[in-house]
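Purpose: get a first structural picture of the assembly so the mutagenesis plan has something to point at.
Setup: two entries, given in the order below. No constraints added.
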Amino acid sequence: MYKIRIEHSLHYKRESRIAFFSLAPIFLYHFIMIVLPSFNTLYSSFTNWNGLGTKELIGFANYQDLFKDPNFYNAIENNLKWMGIFLTIPIFLGLILGYTLSRVKKGSLFFRAAYFLPYVISAAIAGKIFAAFYNPYFGINIAFKAFHLDFLARDWLAPSNSLFSVAFVDMWHWWGFLLVIIMSALQQIEPKLYESAELDGANEVQKMWYITLPSIKQTLIFIVLATMVWSIGTFDYVWVMTKGGPGSELLSTMLYKNALFKYKGGYACSISVVQTFIAFVIFAGFGLIRKKMED
Amino acid sequence: MSIGKKRNKVILYTILSIIALLQLFPLILTLFNSFRTDGAIKKFPVGFPTEPNIDNFIKAWKIGGYTKAFSNSFTISIVTTVIIMFVSIIAGYFLVRSNLKIKNLLFVYFGIALSIPIFSYLVPLYYTFSTLNLVNSKVGLIMIYVAIHIPFNTLLARTFILGIPRELDEAAIIDGCSTYQILARIIFPLAKPIMSTIALIVFVATWNEFTLANTFLQQPMLKTAATRYVLFVGERGSDLSMVYTAGIITMLPIIIAFFVLQNFFIDGMTSGSIK
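Result (structure tokens, whole complex):
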């Protein structure tokens, strides 16, 4: 027994060394590839870096330019609209249909798969195919006109419509994912809760409000937080479909253009810092709310 | 009462089916149009193929350079997936079992790292990579993908390994196994379910990824299938039959995999989102 214990402790000493030399490279690799460049972004945002040349510190000049740039406010507004769209429509759809499907006995797996399917398709493909549907001359407009639904036909990717048209595609891809997450959360609810509520004569709305929503609160908070943070950085669908053209400029598309096409690296970095700052504020806000709720 | 219930059921299933049809309609339409001619599509965008043939597919495959594009996608996704499968299990194992004090710190680090968005590091990383000749290099893109996928999958592996009884390790230690022998003989075989989930998550994410692939691989011959398709539509977009056909070709591998492995896909791709 004693011998075993010695071997044990020797083993743990050796093991600690092995653990350290296994974890350290993995951590360092991630740190060098992701975190260090993020700090570099912060530093570069205070320089006149063009991407290629040297960096000279210029204080807050990039931020001053940014806060004077009408395009920046335009982008912020679009990001907030995007957030508003994604905080409502897909969550509502996922909630209502997730609730319905979780109470359907036959075929719920089939419907779940059908609703989820677009989630496995790349933004690059979905974006370009929907852009073809949105083509004002050869797309769905022709079908609308043929069915005398002319009022529906419009130039979908024109500035006044493009943000919602693009968001529509992303929602098509996204809400099935929310549905699955919500369904998994709903599975954890004790069926007895519903049974006793039914005995007390509760209707569907009351059951939803008093049992379902409180039971999946954690999941819903996670979805709302993730949606808000992710809405600040969203990029791929908009870039694929409009390149952030007029009407759908976002912080990310503005950043991307400045960084890669206009050679204003420092300026692009200042946009990234603003994005990170907004995300941080959202996280902090959620932390405060959670703390208040626990008190 | 029971008639009313039956009627409600019919209404319910009708609504669910209509939504399913609406959800799948864009894909069905794309499939139909991939068998139609450009002229027919432009005349009316919705329709059955009248003379279905695979001419569109042969043409799109050739012009789109799909042999090359798919081989690029496969190389990048497979290499990234295999690396992450091993790295995340190893990291997850030591995050659970080691006595290191820094392991809790690392746990928090990976938790925070989960939420670092691409744009917070993209610009400096791009220009650093371009001086190191890692732009327009598959190795460069794989290096970034590996880094991005470490935190989430390590935490996923950690949660799984927490469920493996410690007694198994201890028995192996008494039998004289070294740490890496324990990993090889006990942890990896037991972790197969989570390794397949990790493989699925990483493979699908890298296969579909747009932003980084489009930024770091700019030469057409290096592009992945998804980013090559965007280029293809940019060049050949006026021929709508090519847009739809190439779209079907590009999405087909993942759609087939989805149909074959439906529940594994749905559960795997949403795992870790809920606890």
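Chain B has two domains: 2-53, 68-218.
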